[in-house]
Amino acid sequence: MSRKPWILSVALAFVIVASMALGGLVATRVGGRGGPPVAAARNDAASTKPVSAPVAALASPGIAEVVDRARKSTVLIEGGSAAGSGIVIDKDGRIATNYHVVEGQKTLKIILEDGTAARATVLGTDPSSDLAVLQSELPKDKLFPATIGDSSVMRAGDPVFAIGSPFNQSFTVTSGIISATGRSTQSSFTGRSIRDMLQTDAAVNPGNSGGPLFNVNGEVVGINTSIENPNGRFFVGLGFAIPSNTVLKLVPDLIAGKTVSHAQLGVSVVALDEVVAKDLGLSVGRGLYVTSVQPSSAAARAGVVAAAATPARATPADAAVPGKGGDVIVAIEGRETKTFVDLARAVDNADVGANLTITVLRNGQRMNLNATLQPWDLKAN
């Protein structure tokens, strides 16, 4: 399925407990026009605890108050091909949003829920992550910075809600749950995978892009950015948000106007299961089978070995596997690696130039390889 780029806005439409609506999620593919929430991160003890709440809590009067506060931290962005959304980061008037909301623009118009409007200029962008930060001229007394939560504690089933301006219906709220974590989408600007995404069933539509995905405490846990839309630009229950932890990592550089550099290992892998591992004659049931290594990449310089190409006259059993004889990555920095998400998270969380210890299984023997991560390159992706 393809994810087409378009600006999203949030429309709260998930009914829980006697048709009580709560939260929503908006997303748009990296490459359309539609931003991430970059607000003051919580540094109190509660910020490290799970933010999910019992479903019964959704029927409490407190949800409306949470939405009221969240709306004050959300903005409408005009000036591109269509309206998008954004999040107030701080009292200095900085706004976080999606890159595709501001693509090609130098100045835009920012509108608060109470109608206050001001001009804004683009401070920094990262097309590879579909993130951007704006500097607005909004008065300080009108600014209510959002609070950024910890996206790593979100679990499938956690209730969320989104705020945005879908189809020019400004500051609409929609609700749903986290459908899955650790998803991947792709930037249509650079081709780089955007990983560790939050998947949600909260209704999102054009105009929601760049708007916040909140938990029941009113903390931003994601930036609505894309949807799975096989039949057009309409929400079908599969929305994606850039996790707040990714936003927190990248926003300082975006505020400073720096070019964001992403680390890359330079391998293609296939996640093993017990069936594939047996077909390959491997002694390990789980891990990442290396199918190719990009020349001159960090992996190549570390000595990672890829599988041999599958013979041209392969049997049906051979056709089910990518080849034979390659390394199996079983750990990164001593942490077990079973899925592509495990590998991607380890690389994405590291800086360019960082050294990672990669544990591989080769011919039944475990060995540690040292890889110095290089900048992400489309040719080595």
In what range is the share of β-strand residues? 25-35%
Which stretches are poorly predicted, pLDDT < 50 over at least 5 residues?
A: 1-60, 310-321
> Strand order of the main beta sheet, please?
12-13-14-18-17-16
Q: According to CATH, what is the topology of the largest domain?
A: Thrombin, subunit H
Termini separation (Å)? 20 Å
Q: Give the count of structural domains.
A: 2
Which whole number gives the mean pLDDT?
79
State the major sheet.
6 strands, antiparallel, barrel
Task: Estimate percent helicity.
Answer: 10-25%
Count of alpha/pi helices: 7
Structural class: mainly beta
CATH classification, class level of the largest domain: Mainly Beta
- Count of strand segments: 26
Jot down its keywords.
single chain, 381 residues, mainly beta, Thrombin, subunit H, Pdz3 Domain, 2 domains, six-stranded antiparallel barrel, 7 helices
